[in-house]
Design goal:
- Strands 7-4-9-8 form a 4-stranded mixed beta sheet, sandwiched between helices.
- A hairpin with a 4-residue loop joins strand 1 and strand 2.
- It contains 3 helices and 10 strands; from the N terminus they run βββββββαβββαα.
- It is 20% helix and 44% strand.
Length: 181
């Protein structure tokens, strides 16, 4: 099997500030057709920033879709005209006030491939300097430092629900343990 689907038609359902939703008809491998609802997203970036004491910088912020405060690594959507790394550096500074160095890619994650084309780019860095945070207008958050291995424990104990944060924390812990960072 080729494991492909071919778009036959696509209808715009919603076009907002961040999301674009389409309702697509696709042709399956066996020639039959199916409908797909797709959330188009510009993508995102997430940064695991480790200070000299091996603490990760986290933010807590209210996430409206869940109706609760969520603990996450600094992150944000990709802005046109900037690379994922440039976006990551901007988000880290805005949300935590930290300036990073020695950035390395931790890869990419597809947060929910069943209905969205969003790709989140993950990075690791060391913290060079701590300044005042400068959140975007309408963005309210608290910054916390959590020891890396305590953060990994929180992930493993199902106390961190954000998928991008889980992946970045565990990758960072593995890389530190193996001496690669």
């Amino acid at each position: 099997m080729k494991l492909t689907e071919t778009t036959v038609s696509s209808k715009d359902v919603f076009n907002g500030r961040i999301l674009h939703v389409t309702h697509d008809e696709v042709e399956l491998e066996d020639g039959s057709s199916a409908m797909r609802e797709v959330v188009r997203h510009p993508g995102g970036v997430c940064v695991a920033a480790l200070d000299d004491d091996n603490n990760l910088l986290f933010v807590r912020q209210f996430r409206y879709p869940y109706g609760e405060t969520v603990m996450e690594l600094p992150a944000g959507k990709l802005e046109k005209g900037s690379t994922p790394l440039e976006n990551g550096k901007r988000e880290l500074l805005e949300e935590t006030g930290a300036v990073g160095y020695s950035y390395i890619s931790l890869g990419q994650v597809y947060p929910s491939p069943g209905y969205t084309d969003e790709v989140i780019h993950l990075y690791f860095c060391r913290v060079a300097e701590q300044r005042d945070s400068r959140p975007d207008e309408g963005e309210f958050l608290n910054v916390e430092k959590i020891p890396l291995f305590k953060a990994a424990e929180l992930v493993l104990n199902n106390q961190v629900f954000d998928a991008k944060t889980q992946v970045a924390v565990l990758k960072t812990a593995m890389l530190l343990t193996s001496g690669k960072i």
